[in-house]
Amino acid sequence: MLNAKIPAGSLNDKWNDYKGHCKLVNPxxxxxxxxxxxxxxLAGASAAASLGELGYKVKAFCFQDSARRAHSIAAQGGIxxxxxxxxxxxxxxxxxxxxxxxGDYRAREANVHRLAEVSTNIIDQCVAQGVPFAREYGxxxxxxxxxxxxxxxxxxxxxxxxxxxxxGAYSALQRQVSLGNVEMFAxxxxxxxxxxxxxxxxxxxxxxxxxxxxxxFGHAVLLCTGGYGNVFYLSTxxxxxxxxxxxxxxxxxxxxxxxxxxxxxxxxxxxxGDHQSKLTLMSESLRNDGRIWVPKKKDDPRKPNEIxxxxxxxxxxxxxxxxxxLVPRDVASRAAKERCDAGYGVGSxxxxxxxxxxxxxxxxGHIEAGKRGIHNADANMLYKLGVEVVTEKYGNLFEMxxxxxxxxxxxxxxxxxxxxxxxxxxxWVDYELQTSIPGLYALGEANFSDHGAxxxxxxxxxxxxADGYFVIPYTLGNNxxxxxxxxxxxxTHPAFEAAEKAVQATIDTFLNIKGTKSVDHFHKKLGKxxxxxxxxxxxxxxxxxxxxxxxxxxKEFWKDVRVPGTANEFNPELEKxxxxxxxxxxxxxxxxxxxxxxxxxxxxxxxxxxxxxxxxKRDDENFSYVxxxxxxxxxxxxLHKEALEFVECKPTQRNYK
Length: 657
Known about the structure:
The chain has helices at 11-21, 27-30, 42-54, 92-102, 109-129, 161-179, 244-251, 315-319, 329-344, 358-371, 379-405, 460-480, 494-513, 519-534, 540-560, 572-596, 620-623; strands at residues 34-38, 57-61, 79-80, 154-155, 182-185, 188-196, 199-207, 213-217, 220-223, 256-257, 262-268, 291-295, 312-313, 353-356, 414-423, 426-427, 440-442, 625-633, 636-643. The relative contact order is 0.16. It has 657 residues and is an alpha+beta fold. A five-stranded parallel β-sheet has the order 5-2-1-9-17. A five-stranded antiparallel β-sheet has the order 11-15-14-12-13. α3 (42-54) packs parallel to α12, α14 runs antiparallel to α15 (540-560) and α14 runs parallel beside α16 (572-596). Among the domains are: 265-420, Succinate dehydrogenase/fumarate reductase flavoprotein, catalytic domain (Flavocytochrome C3, Chain A, domain 1), CATH 3.90.700.10; 502-624, Methane Monooxygenase Hydroxylase, Chain G, domain 1. Keywords: Cell membrane, Electron transport, FAD, Flavoprotein, Membrane, Oxidoreductase, Transport. One of its GO terms (molecular function) is succinate dehydrogenase (quinone) activity.
């Protein structure tokens, strides 16, 4: 049976009651306890800094050359918090409600409410660290809107919020490194966890520069390794993002929760050809001021600026008048796909829609002219003034778009199309963020807990920092309080010996196959299967085909992959081989989970389950649960179900109209 360990009492009291009654570890005992943290993005860096500050002996691992290069830097638009600075009706409950509703009622209420509660502390923490959030003229922090909400609760630093937040967490982490409380292991990749008497007690890591395998003991292991969107090959994730740490834990007994819940982001630069290795995200914050449209005429050959207003279809505003361009990501993505599939797409591929700022230039121009006391300004002057405002808010995003596409978005509308971005699934964790393996925790995007079937924009940064700064210091201590008499286990223990031997055997296998096809060849083929048959839309026939095709591809991979070089050197192809081998197993489980969940919810859209007007149709009677999959060996899985109970947010058909 799955035990989520959700505290008793009302939602408003659960977290405070937990903090008031959980076990504590005194400062002297903290110095005796060792904690391993894998991943140094927002969740990992904040956890390492917090636990180091508390006095634990922390080892932090990242495969990048610096913790500053974690993929968290790529988050652009902002971070949510229920501060209600705009006095527009926001509250902890409203953030909680929007998140549960945005996730299509497939998230655990208790975790989401805790997230909303601690969101306000995150902003204070980051401001104290010097994060340069945007401010209003009077000095107060500025807010903007994101999809799925009707309030302004998103704090931002131009279009580089993730980078600035990570620099804050990185600074806190490096302070602990300099004090000797945290030991950093850059260019190290975790290749397995080590269990002793059923508990996670360490990891096997590979030094990516020398190729040497290393053993590291910890009283607890925290996985903060992000999501698995690169199973699709083309995604907005960094090229190095992978599932290996989480998947190795899964194979050791950690349940994998809701693997099919993948987020497709609606505002990405469209695919330009087969040569691409990744996609570029244009921040959702652009939907604050940009309007999305397609021509009303199919295959309209005219340039966008030549199409008059009355011949444009602002389809999100037409279909969802209450939220307009700020509908949640899953809704906006499917709407774009529907228009393109119907023949209204733009650009050479016809797989794109326009994101247009011309009205924003005019609107901000009038405001700025009024502020400056400029009367009777002509259209050209208003445009220039408006561009100045938009440049201040989104300038680096416009510059990035221009560099990638060769088009000036200040002159012609951007072209965007949905792409794989975030994964709501991940390792199953209880209220304490502990997986089904005692002593093993998963934080941030690596776990499944807070977003249900669809993540609202600007909530990823919120969850990562909430888990690291404000949740894990309590929940980890509650469990380590029973471990203070456990002495550090020597890495000569047979469990470490066996784990290292198994990892070495896998590496040797890769190098000895000596096949004819590159690792990327198999990754691209897997990505094509996943996108076409387990992407924005899924159906039973395609999912069954995908499972068979992935099984065949995996067999071919283990017979014909070519991994050059040796194990005892810097060998990126060997790194990729291990990651793609894990993706090939994960992809099958994702399709199996999608096949099993015979309903549509959030980012999981089963074509057999939709309303008359093409919206996602949930089946609360049969599928109001978390899918927690247990690995049984040899490609076999057992499904465990955590029933979801909704006390404060009664499930209803989502309506953004």
